[in-house]
Amino acid sequence: MIDVPGSAERSLGLVETRRVALWNERDPLVLESGEQLDFVEVAYETYGELDAAASNCVFVCHALTGDAHAAGHHGNPERRGWWDNLIGPGKPLDSDRLYIVCANLLGGCQGTTGPSSIDPSTGKPYGLRFPLCTVRDLVTVHRRLLTHLGVERPLAAIGGSVGGMQVLQWSIDHPDELGAGLVICASARLTAQNIAFSAVARAAIMEDENFHGGDYYEHGVRPDNGLSLARRIAHITYLSEQSMRAKFGRRLQHDGEPLRGFGIDFAVESYLEYQGESFVNRFDANSYLYLTRVMDYFDPLGDATSGVEHLRDSRTRFLVLSFDTDWRFPTEHSREIVRVFNAARVSVTFREIESPHGHDSFLLAVPEYHRTVAAFVERMRRELCVP
Amino acid sequence: MRPDLEIVAGMVPAGSRVLDLGCGDGALLAHLIAERGCYGHGVEIDGDAVLACIAAGVPVTEGAIENVLRDFEDGAFDVVLLSWTLQTTRRPAAVVAGMMRVAPVGVVSFPNFAHWRLRAGLVLRGRMPSSLTLPQSWDETPDIHPCTLADFESLVTTLELGVSERILLGPARGQAGAGASARPNLLAAAAVYRLARTAHGASA
Which of B196, B167, B200 lies closest to B103 in space, CA to CA? Predict the structure, then answer.
């Protein structure tokens, strides 16, 4: 059966990242903490056309290190957006039928205001003076962007990992707004193990000699070693033991006999080094600190009783998906969300998808996963879009 | 919709919260949601059937019935359906007990292995039962725990449940002729039972 929507040859062509200032000093963004930002700019991309009734919008919430460039390309068709296999003509998020919006997160470093942006009050980058944000704050920015684009009620919001957390928070805070919510390999509450991995990653950055208390920008250096190490640690948690075994095994990086030193000898070592190096060239260390912290504090449902209370009014229809080899946010995290949804009588469909690729599966064209997203989104479109 | 599903649907009050265990492609739930204003949720282990549910707009949890049942709170539903599925479960008694934990009313339908045609096939031809209601051969059937009406009624008694209604079905899964009630365990090809928690079937 080859009806995998993502396998369609057609893809989006040239797309561009746009920017819009959504808050300014006359109308500052007040965060959940009470702190405020006098100027907030958001980088975003859109694919497809908004219908006349503004009823066909799907908002894509990106994960920790994603950006607004979810699909299409910026000039080189070989280098495509991070969710290009899911978004495009004839794909599960079909740009021929849907108006798809993706924005860089608040606190990020790919065009949306974050710790590397200039603090208007000092004329210097914020660094660690940037306020701590929450998932609720991220959603506040998404909603303002949609208002700017003329969308009051999105057909759906979708996200994997911390992207799924945003979808969950969105529906809790605005129970009548989202038609559908797709929460993929996410969690309603990090475990001690999850926080531990984040803590070690942050320590790697903050203990780098070039960190300078977060003010490395003005010293003309970057804590690249720390950020690279953070990325390498995290990357291990995104893959499964099975996929690492299949991809690298104990293969050596060089032909012939092992070098038997402390340099790079095994293929997996070389791979991790490459992951770290390419990451530091596209990501800001302070953003990594802020966005991982956003996840640590996320706990929107609280205990079972309060979770049910929070969700009781939600009209969102959910699709919750997990992957059987994901050990970053294992299926049990998704099951916990589904348990609360069911107890709160929120409409939810749940599948655990078989995939060898661990947490990273949500970014890959796993056929059964894409079929499921396509079927759910199409059903919601037929029910909820104004023809 | 299949005639036995019509009969099962007829036992579900309008507007109730319904859990359908082994919901297949979701046809019964889609009907109950659209026509009877029910809140419905399905449980299904077959991936293609789950996709069919999604396409039909029916909320569903993919997984084995016994595992998924554990995730629902006591009394989370008004009615739980177990339609043509009992005989495929690994632990039928645990499933029936579990369904009566999450709802006060259960509706169970299944083929009767003591139907005279099956008895005759086994006795006269020496072959495992196969019929209109049980079309698959012994090595193809998903039915690992087939039972008779008498077996099921004995299970109901053991679990201290009550039968508040029983409808006998013929070979085409429609309601059986009146004659079947004379010797149900011999003459009915299948049956639909409505169960209640009290031993005397008080829930009408």
Answer: B196
| Interchain contact, B76 vs A349, CB within 8 Å | no
Q: What is the CATH number of domain A195-292?
A: 1.10.1740.110
**Residue A343: CB partners within 8 Å, gap ≥ 6?**
A304, A307, A308, B73, B76
Predicted TM-score (pTM) of this structure: 0.94
Distances (CA, A) of A134 to A9, A171, A198, A299, B52: 39, 15, 16, 10, 37
Q: Does A337 touch chain B (CB under 8 A)?
A: no
Q: In degrees rounded to 5, what are phi and psi of residue B78? A: -85, -35
* Cβ A88 vs Cβ A72: under 8 Å: yes
Q: What is the pLDDT of residues B57-75, one digit of tens each?
A: 999 999 999 999 999 999 9
C-beta of residue A181 within 8 angstroms of C-beta of residue A170: yes
**DSSP letter assigned to residue A199:** H
User: What beta strand segments (E) does chain A contain?
Assistant: 18-23, 29-30, 36-37, 40-47, 57-61, 87-88, 93-94, 99-103, 118-119, 124-125, 156-160, 180-184, 317-323, 348-353
Q: Which residues of A does the annotation mark as catalytic? A: 161, 326, 359
Give pLDDT, residue B138.
Answer: 86
Chain B contacts of A371, Cβ < 8 Å? 51
**What residues are paired with A320 via a beta bridge?**
A183, A350
> Which distant-in-sequence residues (6+ apart) come within 8 Å of A119 by Cβ?
A125, A126, A129, A130
pLDDT digits 0-9 by tens, A20-52: 999 999 999 999 999 999 999 999 999 999 999
Q: Looking at chain A, which residues constitute the CATH 3.40.50.1820 domain(s)?
A: 5-189+299-384
Quote the CA–CA distance of B105 and B161 in Å, as a whole number.
10
Domains of chain B: 3-196 (3.40.50.150)
Q: Does A372 touch chain B (CB under 8 A)?
A: yes
Closest to A187 measured CA to CA, from A107, A316, A84, A294:
A294
Measured CA to CA in angstroms, residue A86 lies from A98, A357, A367, B80 at distances of: 13, 17, 11, 37
- Closest Cα in chain B, distance from residue A153 (Å): 20
Q: Which ranges in chain A are annotated with CATH 1.10.1740.110?
A: 195-292
Closest A-chain CA to B17: A345
Tell me how far apart the terminal alpha carbons of chain B are, to the nearest angstrom: 25
B 35-74 near A (Cβ less than 8 A): 39, 41, 47, 50-51, 53-57, 59-63, 71-73
Alpha carbon distance B179, A7 (integer Å): 57
Integer Cα distance of B156 and A237 in angstroms:
49
What is the percentage of chain B residues whose pLDDT exceeds 90? 82
pLDDT reported for residue B202: 41
Is A342 in CB contact (< 8 Å) with chain B? yes
B18 touches chain A (CB under 8 A): no
Q: Which residue of B has its CA nearest to A378?
A: B55
What's domain A5-189+299-384's superfamily in CATH?
Answer: Alpha/Beta hydrolase fold, catalytic domain (3.40.50.1820)
Percent of chain A with pLDDT over 90: 90
Q: Which residues of B touch A350 (CB under 8 A)?
A: 60-63
pLDDT of residue A7: 44
Strand, helix or coil for residue B98:
helix
Closest Cβ–Cβ partner in B54, B71, B72 for A375:
B54
